[in-house]
Description:
Blueprint: H1 2-30, H2 35-60, H3 65-90, H4 95-109
Helix pairs in contact: 1-2, 1-3, 2-3, 3-4
Amino acid sequence: xxxxxxxxxxxxxxxxxxxxxxxxxxxxxxxxxxxxxxxxxxxxxxxxxxxxxxxxxxxxxxxxxxxxxxxxxxxxxxxxxxxxxxxxxxxxxxxxxxxxxxxxxxxxxx
Length: 110
C-alpha cells in the first residue's frame, strides 16, 4: 500500500513539473529569452510553480505552523527530485553520470 501511495505522489509531482516545464518554456519564448537568461528564467519559474503547488496542497490539507512548513519543504524537495530525475531520463543518463546530474540539478533548484 505504501508503494502505491508513493508512486501516486511521484506521478503527481512529475505531472506538475512537466506542466511547469511547458508553461515556463512558453513564457520564456514569449519574452524572447535565450541562453543563460532563458535557463535562469525557466529555473526560477519552475521553482515558483512547484512552491505554489505545494502551498495549495498544504492549504487543501488545512495544515498550519510547523506541520505546514515541514510538508511544504518535503513536497518541494520531492517535486524537485522528480523533475531532475525526469530530466536525467530524458538525457538518457545512467549510473554515476545520472547521480551527478541529479545532484547538481537539485542543488541549482534549491
